[in-house]
Amino acid sequence: MERIIGIDLGTTNSLAATVFDEGPEVIEASGESSITPSVLSWTDSGWLVGGESTEIQYL
């Protein structure tokens, strides 16, 4: 069976979820929070990064 993933690209936060036999399940972000901020930035070395570490860097 194919696995389908739904993605919510919100203005402030984003999340992804999938459906198992038991029902829908949110795919939690790595790190301390299950919320993924909808922000991206480039590092000085040219890497594109996103999420909580980018939000902290901005603040």
Jot down its keywords:
single chain; about 60 residues; mainly beta; four-stranded antiparallel β-sheet; two-stranded antiparallel sheet; 1 helix; 6 strands; about 10% helix
Would you mind describing this structure in some detail?
This protein has one helix and six strands, in the order E-E-E-E-E-E-H. The chain has 59 residues and is mainly beta. The protein has one domain (5-58). The strands form two sheets. Strands 1, 2, 3 and 4 form a four-stranded antiparallel sheet that branches. A hairpin with a 5-residue loop joins strand 5 and strand 6. The longest helix is centred in the last third of the chain and has 7 residues, at 52-58. The radius of gyration is 14 Å and the shape is elongated. It starts with a strand and ends with a helix.
Structural class: mainly beta
Structurally, how many domains make up the residues? Answer: 1
* Average of the residue pLDDT scores: 78
- The coarse overall form would be elongated
Distance between the termini: 43 Å
Gist?
With 59 residues, this protein is mostly beta strands. The protein is built from one helix and six strands; from the N terminus they run ββββββα. The protein is elongated.
